Amino acid sequence: MNHIDYPVGASVWQELHARSADGLAEFYAAVLGWELRKASETAGVFLRSGTVVAGLHVDPQLDPVRAGWRTYLGAEDLDAATDRAVAAGAAVTRRGRHLAVPGDAVELVDPFGALFGLAVLPPGVAVPPSPELGRLSLTDATNHDVDEQLAFQRALFPGQASEPVDPPIHFFRDADGTALRGSNEVEPALRDVLPPHWLPWFNVVDQADAVVAAARAGGRVNTQDNVLSFGRWGVVVDPSGADFKVLQLTVPAL
Question: Using CA atoms, how far apart are residues 105 and 234, in angstroms rounded to an integer?
Fold first, then answer.
């Protein structure tokens, strides 16, 4: 049995896959207060106040459909979790996935065509959801049918229940009430241009300021000033084309 220090089923590692690192250091410093520390021309980590918060993988030959933020959900037993995912309709795209931190990982595509990962990480390595500024607050699987996505996630992590928060947004929580991950549904009018994907949310002081900073730092703004029961949010796109949600929490924690 692996000794783990993270909540099973939560996103425990986020890694940005890009064809180029050009402009990323400046962009993430402006929007999330991160520092990029490159180990090589193809790998690095992002830090916030000296603490590692995410990874970077650069491949100039990367297929554009594989570019973007990759979410790795924490498992207790990687083989068992992978088997459950495959039985529920997912497909393995890469075993033995090398991360920017120690640990074992598998990359998959869910039944709806969205890339995600599963990982088992040693103690002290995981970066689970947190209400702290510049940290991941949650990851949601944004799909064209939220009920089908919820069924897949229940099969992936049996015993974890979901609850509607701001429909169609649902949260999965553990027995202690900790928000592990979310699920959302794309509006019908956007489904032709917005395929299923796993979207990370990062905490900011003010989402309006964050989207302005994103635009000034070479990114784009997809949407802003959206209001939910727990915060205000926008979606921005970094210079490599990766999108993510900036969330201004209006509650102490999710």
Answer: 30
223 vs 211: CA distance, rounded Å: 9
Q: Any idea what DSSP says for residue 42?
A: S
Is residue 137's pLDDT more than 60? yes
Q: Which residues partner with 202 through β-bridges?
A: 136, 246
Say how far apart CA 5 and CA 99 lie, in whole Å: 18
Distances (CA, A) of 5 to 68, 74, 75: 27, 10, 11
Residue ranges of E strands in the chain: 11-18, 35-38, 43-48, 51-58, 68-74, 91-95, 104-109, 115-120, 136-143, 161-166, 169-173, 179-185, 197-203, 220-228, 231-237, 243-249
Q: For residue 2, what pLDDT band results from cuts at 50, 70 and 90?
A: low
How does pLDDT run across 188-198, given as a tens digit for each residue?
888 988 899 99
pLDDT tens figures, 88-103 = 999 999 998 889 999 9
SS3 162: strand
What span, in angstroms and rounded, lies between the C-alpha atoms of 106 and 13? 12
Quickly count: other Cβ atoms within 10 Å of residue 184's Cβ. Answer: 18
Q: pTM of the full predicted structure?
A: 0.95
